[in-house]
Amino acid sequence: MSPQLPADGRTTLAFVAVVVTVVGMVFFGGFLSSTGTGGPVGLQFLCSSCYGSVGQSTTGWLMPANVTFSTSYVTTAPMTTFISGIVNVFDYDIQPGILLTVGLYMSGAMVAMQTYNTSDYHFPQLAQIVASNSSSMAVFTNSLVGFTATVLGLTRPVPAGATVTVAIVTNHPIWVQIDGSAPVKSYETVAPPSDVLPANHGAISPYTIWVDIQSES
Questions:
Q1: Mean pLDDT of the chain
Q2: Residues 42, 12: contact at Cβ < 8 Å?
Q3: Cβ atoms within 10 Å of 172's Cβ, excluding its own
Q4: Do residues 67 and 206 touch, judged by C-beta distance below 8 A?
Q5: Is residue 5 part of a domain?
Q6: Which stretches of 36-119 are assigned E, i.e. beta strand?
Q7: What is the pLDDT of residues 146-184, one digit of tens each?
């Protein structure tokens, strides 16, 4: 049976789902849903070291297909237990058959990658467009699905000052959450995710993808 996204998006249900996944797997990916309350999907109450976008954003960008977008942040504390990268997608017009890949990199080297096929899941399609000034930019009611790539059981602590990068690519345009006030830029390349990030990261993306990086220190 395909897993079902919780229709009401309660954080408690998301917490249970992730705890079960953590117990059962050492190297995993998963996704969560969130509706109505604003802010990014994620388990911020579980992590003592959180990086990436902060605050709230209901702005979405119709991210083009077959382009890899990467966003990086530098850690300010050691990471000792797990590292998780989350990219949020608005629960709007998610078509079956979309392949979405999330990659997680440490200092340019891939440590986790997860590919999702939207045909395997049920999406309530709860997000609605409330304002739009183009065919590729819109403001939504805040219903999000968070796609993740995570590595657990770190064999040694990752020191402060490490660069953590989250990359995303799909085979079909999809509405991603963007961060209009991020201190960093996202980069784009037509190359698919690989074991090592390109040295130049590609061209600067027109928008910064909202990412959530979580760990423990």
A1: 78
A2: no
A3: 16
A4: no
A5: no
A6: 49-52, 59-63, 68-74, 82-90, 99-106, 109-117
A7: 999 999 888 888 889 999 999 999 999 999 999 999 999
Handedness of CA 123, 129, 133, 138 (dihedral sign): negative
**Residue range(s) defining the domain that contains residue 176:** 11-215
Tokens of 144: 């999000």
pLDDT tens figures, 82-123: 899 999 999 999 999 999 999 999 999 999 999 999 999 888
Q: Please report whether residue 1 resides in a domain.
A: no
**How many residues make up the chain in this entry?**
217
Look at residue 6 and tell me if it is in a domain: no
CB atoms within 10 A of CB 69: 24
What is the tally of structural domains in the chain?
1
Residues 120-130 as b/e (b if ≥16 CB within 10 A, e otherwise) read: eeebbebbeee
Task: For residue 174, give the nearest of 203, 201, 140 by alpha carbon.
Answer: 140
31 falls within a domain: yes
